[in-house]
Amino acid sequence: MWDSIIKPTLVLFIVCAVVTGALAYVNGMTKDIILARTEEEQEQYRIQVMNGADRFVKLEEEGLLSDKVAGVYEAYSQDNLIGYVVDVTTKGYGGTINLTVGVNTDGHVTGVIVGDNSETPGLGSKAKEPDFINQFGEVTVNDTLSVVKQGKKSANEIQAISGATITSRAVTDGVQAALDAVKLIMNGVN
What is the pLDDT of residue 79? Predict the structure, then answer.
């Protein structure tokens, strides 16, 4: 009994405990570095979607905005408010999709970046390509976005990626959440 069940179980338990402890130690050592790099990446995304901004100020609007909205930043150029950048988390086919959406003070989308996601390579990953993303450059905070599979007729209709309708809807819903958040803020709901 000792050699056949208890001894192998005890050895396996010790190996698992040592490996878990080592992983926890490495995670503790690198957690701050990973957090700093993630914040740097997010700052670069904000700069890319709001060209001309020299600083961003995070707004504290939790509770009033959609649960998809992870953060809202005012974008300034030489102390003049030029727009808003919204971080959005939405659910796609393969899991969560992180988006960064810029909207200028006229209510027009200035840029959309699809960040971390687990969408299917070759299908859902096409959501990052300009053919899909550039469609959002025509929409404003007053639009209600919809996804169409064929025959796009107006600016608020987003042509779905062939074979990745769920991803297309997820990104479109995320951009709509960003537009709704900016519309609320621009209308003075704080």
Answer: 93
Neighbours of 63 (CB within 10 A): 6
3-class state of residue 139 by DSSP: coil
Alpha helix segments (H runs only) across 50-187: 130-133, 165-186
DSSP lists the bridge partners of residue 90 as 97
Tens digits of per-residue pLDDT, 11-47? 999 999 999 999 999 999 999 999 999 889 999 999 9
Report the mean per-residue pLDDT for the chain. 91
Which pLDDT tens digit goes with each residue over 51-91?
Answer: 999 999 999 866 667 889 999 999 999 999 999 999 999 99
Residue 51 carries which side chain, given as an amino acid letter? N
Question: Beta strand 69-77 with 80-91: parallel, antiparallel or unpaired?
Answer: antiparallel
**Cα distance between residue 102 and residue 178, in whole Å:** 8
65 alpha carbon, distance to own chain's centre: 15
d(CA 50, CA 47): 5
Q: What is the pLDDT of residues 94-103, one digit of tens each?
A: 899 999 999 9
Q: DSSP character for 161?
A: P
What are the tokens at 35? 């957090």
